[in-house]
Amino acid sequence: MSKDKLESLVKRMEETLLEMEQLKVHCGKQSEELGLLVVELRRENQELVEKYDELAVEMKEANEIIDQLQDTKHAFNAKERQAQKLSRHL
Fold first, then answer.
1. Residue 54 and residue 47: Cα distance in Å, rounded?
2. What whole-number distance in Å separates Cα of residue 82 and Cα of residue 74?
3. Tell me, what DSSP letter sits at residue 90?
4. How far apart are alpha carbons 54 and 66 in whole angstroms?
5. pLDDT tens per residue, range 52-86
6. How far apart are CA 1 and CA 80, in angstroms?
7. What is the pTM of this model?
8. Number of H helices, E strands in the chain
9. Coiled-coil region(s) at which residues (predicted)?
10. Which residues contact 1 (CB under 8 A, 6 or more apart)?
11. What value does the CA radius of gyration of the chain take, rounded to a whole number of Å?
């Protein structure tokens, strides 16, 4: 191999090593950013889970209230029908 070719090869290898070092730094920064994003997404996910659990409890309570109101309505309607029957007998 001639001296010029060898020098050219060494120069390309140095450039390649420099590029690789720059890529390593760039990838390290991206990895750090992604790690921060993962932490943020996990925090947001936990908040959503907690909100969902709270809403599920509220929905259960709302359904229980609706059931109680329907029971009250049915009882009231039954009493009203009973009162109408008694008033017809009088």
1. 11
2. 12
3. -
4. 18
5. 999 999 999 999 999 999 999 999 999 999 999 88
6. 110
7. 0.62
8. 1, 0
9. 3-79
10. 9
11. 38
Question: Maximum distance among all alpha carbons in the chain?
Answer: 127
What single-letter DSSP state applies at residue 19?
A: H
Contacting residues for 9 by C-beta, under 8 A, at least 6 apart:
1
pLDDT in tens, 2-60: 888 989 999 999 999 999 999 999 999 999 999 999 999 999 999 999 999 999 999 99
Residue type, 65: I
Q: Which two tokens stand for residue 24?
A: 């390593």
Give the amino acid at 87: S
Residue 80, SS3?
helix
